[in-house]
Amino acid sequence: MAKSIIQKDRRCLLCGRNGQADPLDSHHIYGGANRNNSEKYGLKVYLCHHQCHIFGERSVHQCAEVNQNLKALGQQVAMDYYGWTVDEFRRIFGKNYL
Q: Are 13 and 6 in contact (CB under 8 A)?
């Protein structure tokens, strides 16, 4: 498993909790056909399983705005980290999220 290029600490990216009350999940920012690319390039984050990842009203799997913002953050961090242009990112992930 590739290390996240976004987070250094094992805390929920959205709320900052450490996973003691709600276990942390490793979330691939780009799923589906891009799950392997998320893994390869370290585009994963920790999220509280119930509240921030799956079930909460503003969780990444329930709220399109949060999901879009996370994808935009992932793109910007990846472009900065790897020195990619928007076109290079789009070539790998198929879409521009910025």
A: yes
Q: What angle do CA 89, 91, 93 make, to 5 degrees?
A: 65
Report pLDDT digits (tens) over 9-20. 999 999 999 999
Tokens of 53: 């990842």
What residue has token string 């900052």? 16
Q: What sign does the CA torsion over 70, 30, 53, 25 have?
A: negative
What pTM did the predictor assign? 0.91
Buried b (16+ CB within 10 A) or exposed e, 86-97: eeebeeebeeeb
